[in-house]
Amino acid sequence: MKITAVEAIPYAIPYAKPLKFASGEIHVAQHVLVRVHTDDGVVGVADAPPRPMTYGETQAGVVAVIDTIFAPAVVGLGLMEREEIQSRLNRTVANPVAKASLDMAIWDAMGKTMGYQVTELLGGYTDRMRVSHMLGFDSPAAMVTEAERMRDTYGITTFKVKVGRRPYTLDTAVVRALREELGDGIELYVDANRGWSASESARAMKEMADLGLTFAEELNPADDVLGRRWLVQQLDVPFIADESVSTAAEVTREVLGGSATAISIKTSRTGFTQSRRVHHLAEGLGLEVVMGNQIDTQLGSICTVAFGAAFELTSRRAGELSNFLDMSDDLLAEPLEIHDGELTIRPGAGLGVEIDPDKLSHYRQD
Ligand code: MUC
Ligand code: MG
Predict the structure, then answer these.
(1) What's the pLDDT score for residue 283?
(2) Percentage with pLDDT > 70 across the chain
(3) Does the first or last residue of the chain, that is N or C, have fewer Cβ atoms within 10 Å of its Cβ?
């Protein structure tokens, strides 16, 4: 069970429907496929989706930090030496997505070696999650059409609406149209990716007070410390910290500082090992949790559902698991399918997925 090699393979797959939000837009998945090889001949896989607008990482940077620092640090260690692996990765600051992908590929290899699903190894609470779909910026009519298509085709009834534009009425008009056209049977929450000020956020939330929102996510920047505290105190829905909580320490800081009352856990930035710490902290603090999406591929989404299904707290709310539907293609040999608004983990050991070698040679960029 010793790690013998780590590969970081850059690849690019265009989105059929680009996602636009307050901190950026994604037109092409310029990601990195991470493969961990062991001396038993097992190969673990995971996906690294660099998001420069969120963490400052780039595709070239993820490949470089894995090739030059992380791979040499973990080769020779056993798959079970997980705390030693974390300690070695943490000698380098930041780089959350690169660290997370390597960690998840190690868990996949561990599951395959031991003959257990990653979900079973993590907690084994259930085998599925309800799906929440993220709606990117567009006109009210186009966003309503998209939500109706997701509901009618996949049975999805929870939607995260990207907001944070100026004037904020562009977004409040969308949320109102969604509630009016799709009715009370759907769950709606909003995510501004730090696009508004505290006062704009407060005004926008007042204007949407009658729309039955479940959550408000990262409406203004966490660095706007007093403004954020002031905003969170006056809201009557939980305020989700997302990009402001990329470590367990940041969860502590934001929540105890009164700047958040719920959190998003994203396996693409905290992997399985650190996501587990964040989960346990959230449970101890009594926070609501949403499994978030980093505009993930099918491999990224299977990691999210593998973690979310492992615990009661993370499987209570719909997880953001459907952005892969907007991609023109994917690397998985057997595509993921959403049925009746749910995504189920794969039955096989580890993450239960295989990479299609032809697709990888077609899309790889090295
Ligand atoms: C989200 O929830 O914010 C947008 C940028 C990113 O890193 O994640 C997405 C979705
Ligand atoms: Mg977010």
Answers:
(1) 98
(2) 100
(3) C
Q: Looking at the CA of residue 218, tell me the nearest atom of ligand 1.
A: 3
The CATH number corresponding to 120-344 among 3.40.50.1970, 3.90.930.12, 3.20.20.120, 3.40.190.10 equals: 3.20.20.120
Decide: 338 and 330 in contact? Cβ < 8 Å.
no
Cα dihedral sign, 171-177-180-184: negative
pTM attached to this predicted model: 0.98
Using the mean position of ligand 2's atoms as its centre, give its distance from the Cα of residue 43 in Å: 31
DSSP secondary structure letter of residue 68: I
Nearest CA to ligand 1 atom 4: 294
Q: Which of 75, 74, 82, 70 is nearest to 118 (CA)?
A: 82
Residue 25 CA to ligand 2 center (angstroms) comes to: 13
Closest-CA residue to 295 (of 277, 269, 317): 269
In 3D, which of 106, 30, 45, 100 has the Cα closest to residue 366? 30
162-197: pLDDT as tens digits: 999 999 999 999 999 999 999 999 999 999 999 999
How far, in Å, is the centroid of ligand 1 from the Cα of 115?
33
- State whether the Cα torsion 323-329-330-332 is positive or negative: positive
If one looks up domain 3-115 in CATH, what number appears?
3.30.390.10
How do beta strands 342-344 and 128-135 pair? Answer: antiparallel
Mean pLDDT of the chain: 98
Return the ligand number nearest the Cα of 55: 1
CA atoms within 13 A on the CB side of 213: 26
Cα-based distances in Å from 149 to 13, 133, 154, 260, 324: 23, 11, 8, 32, 15
How much is the pLDDT for 83? 96
Distance between CA atoms of residues 5 and 2, nearest Å:
9
Ligand nearest to the CA of 293: 1
Q: Do the domains at 3-115 and 120-344 have one common CATH topology?
A: no
pLDDT computed for residue 239 by the predictor: 98
pLDDT in tens, 195-248: 999 999 999 999 999 999 999 999 999 999 999 999 999 999 999 999 999 999
